[in-house]
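Incident log, structure service

09:12 report received: a user says their structure output differs between two submissions of the same chain.
09:20 pulled the input from the user's history:
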Amino acid sequence: MKKIVICTFLIAAAGAVSLFSINQNVNLSEPEFALKSMSAITLGYDKSMSEKTIKAAVIDSYFREVVKNGKLVRWNPATFPLKVYIQDSPDLPDYYREVVMSAYQTWQRSSEGLVRFEFVESPSEADMKCYFKDSDTNKEVIGSHSFSVNGNKITDSVITFHKTDAKGHSHDSKQLFSSALQEIGHSIGLQAKSPSIYDVMYPVGTKFNTEITPRDLKTLGLLYSVVPDITNQEFTAEEKAGLMTATEVLATLNVPVDDNTDLSEVPTGDLATHLALAEQYRKRAEYTKAAQEYEIVAQMKNDRRSKSEVYYEVAVMYLDAEEYDNARSCAEIAWATDENDLTITLPALINYYTKRSNTAVQQLEDILRENPYNKHAYKLLCQIYRDKHHENLLNSTIRRYGKTAGVIEE
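09:34 re-ran on a clean worker, output below:
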């Protein structure tokens, strides 16, 4: 049989301004890692659910990107908990292994047991293996994942982390945790890039995507509701009977838009159609048309917070395209639509993108003095200090705000 290796990568934002863009045997079921309900998995979708429910989930996920990425690869839940080996070595920082373990625990808890893991001490008994290695190449990559596939069967799953960054420094805990979350996401089947800056599976490594979002979870739930093309153990006829096909899931959208579509001929329709058009225009670098479609999406949203999130995404789209005046205009709209912890950081984010780091720092410090619980301001401020290697200022920020705004304690 032909052996296929499927690889994915997380790129570190090592000094680059790429924070956002649209476009020990341990059993995790022990009390301290108890799930909401081990007997009834609450995350997931099946044939008994209404088309409206499935459609809403698809719209608010990046399941379409997973399907477009190629064959669907995921594990058979009948084999859970998956056994995980994480390399431990005396030449590694003490926290490396603990941080990666914590990332696995976070996926298990967040998914309410839809995916489950158990740590083992030997790679020979593991389904998933994590290693830390030295390399002289591609040092901007923090971690990478690969499946080995024989025919339609997963034979191996390996995550490899560089021991150090491009400058020979150890990865800090947030940096490694963010990388581990994304690579574990790939290893459980999320072989695609989310277009949303909020999601763990957003393609550019920001060091700070340390929270699994509802979009991440809905995508995972949809993936585990369909029959995969490649898995580790063949599904029985009874198991398949409760699953959908990817075609059935996508058919709930009835959106005639793909990479080959003449977008000018697509009739106007529901929110899903306008969102699909916006995403396609963005992929084709037709930003004005994308913004027009996003505007329609925002107007179709029912609450101010959801509307502001759309304008935020458009602002970041323009930042990514280096159209800074348009980015500022959209940032103002996002803030005026709903002033929240995320939108008030937009001016600082724009200053960060445009190399005005000192101004951004002052803005973020002011935000945190006013609201020490603003995690978005905290993360961006830490990002700036890390990029500039201001260790004293970074440590001071962690001491002041790490317990209120931080996701992980240093």
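09:41 both user submissions now match this output. Likely a transient worker issue. Closing.
09:42 reviewer note: Residues 319 and 327 are 6 Å apart (CA to CA). The first strand starts at residue 3 and ends at 12.
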